[in-house]
Amino acid sequence: MFPNTARTLLLAALGWALALHAFAQSATLEKVKRDGALVIGYVGDAAPFSFTDGAGQPQGYSVDLCRAVAAGIGAQLKIADLKTRWVPLTVQNRLEAVGANRVDLECSTTTWTLSRQAAVDFSLITFVDGANIVALADSGIRRIADCSGKRIAVLAGTTTEKVLRQALARQQVKAEVVTIASRTEGLQMVDQGKVDGFASDRTTLIVATVASKKRERFRLLDQDLSVESYALTLPRDDHDFRLAVNRVLAGLYRDGGIRPIYERWLGQFGSPSLLLNAAYFIQGLAE
Predict the structure, then answer these.
(1) Does pLDDT of 14 surpass 70?
(2) Is the predicted pLDDT of residue 148 greater than 60, yes or no?
(3) How many whole angstroms separate alpha carbon 73 and alpha carbon 105?
């Protein structure tokens, strides 16, 4: 038996150890409780997933998922009026913003990869897309082999840049890869003849061509270059926060709350693909 004083000190030490462990597991939730706000990053030119509307407000499929996450976390923490603060990011700085804790999570079109998971964490998958190339309809570019001798633009630092270079190398196609900073710039360069094609995610390319009001002028390749699994980007080593986020997403998938969000932003392009339907079904985890 320990003397009373020694026993008290031991219990106190154990209590502090457990408390510190819990804090380490939920640093983001502790900050959210302290500040009464969730800080959310988004990329402003990734419609229909994340973009800035005419009033300067974030909108889109991924943004609506983050709004649902904020409401769910507020309920889990019993904060009736949890505020959200939106921080515009770029494709180039979105991962760094999460890793440096400048935002609590990021919602746009970020693909979950193992190399990225060395720096940040990810939620359940939120969408399944594929990389593709848009070119002028009369360019004759239908396959990656048709890009020989062409100039293809791509967003710098994205998974699409990597898969584009891999596809060109695999098929021994000699094309010039031109790295750029925004999707708007990429489509404009194709339209103006400064590049022959622009590689990005299929859905964002479709939306961009429709928004340009020149849909008939552009054409996508007949086959995607990759499968891109989107997820919300989260801080590493914060398991309780990831659980809180995934509780909300799993509930949306399980109970059908994802359907009106999909219909609002993507319904005009058809029903969810078989892969996306499977992702919703498999990730509708029981509570």
Answers:
(1) no
(2) yes
(3) 12
Joined tokens for residue 23:
């804090």
Q: Which regions of the chain carry the CATH code 3.40.190.10?
A: 26-129+228-282, 131-220
pTM, two decimals, is 0.83
Amino acid making up residue 137: A
Handedness of CA 23, 27, 31, 32 (dihedral sign): negative
| The 45-46 sheet, strands edge to edge | 45-46, 50-52, 58-59
User: Which tokens is 25 given?
Assistant: 């597991």
In 10 A of CB 227, how many CB atoms? 12
> Nearest 5 degrees, angle CA 266-CA 204-CA 137?
110
CA 266 to CA 273: how far, in whole Å? Answer: 11
> Under CATH, which architecture does the 131-220 domain have?
3-Layer(aba) Sandwich (3.40)
pLDDT at 25: 57
Helix (H, G, I), strand (E, B) or coil at 52: strand
What is the distance between the alpha carbons of residues 121 and 134, in angstroms, rounded to a whole number?
Answer: 31
pLDDT surpasses 90 at 246:
yes
Q: How far apart are CA 270 and CA 155, in angstroms?
A: 26
* pLDDT digit string, tens, across residues 176-216: 999 999 888 999 999 999 999 999 999 999 998 888 877 88
Q: Does domain 26-129+228-282 have CATH number 1.25.40.10?
A: no
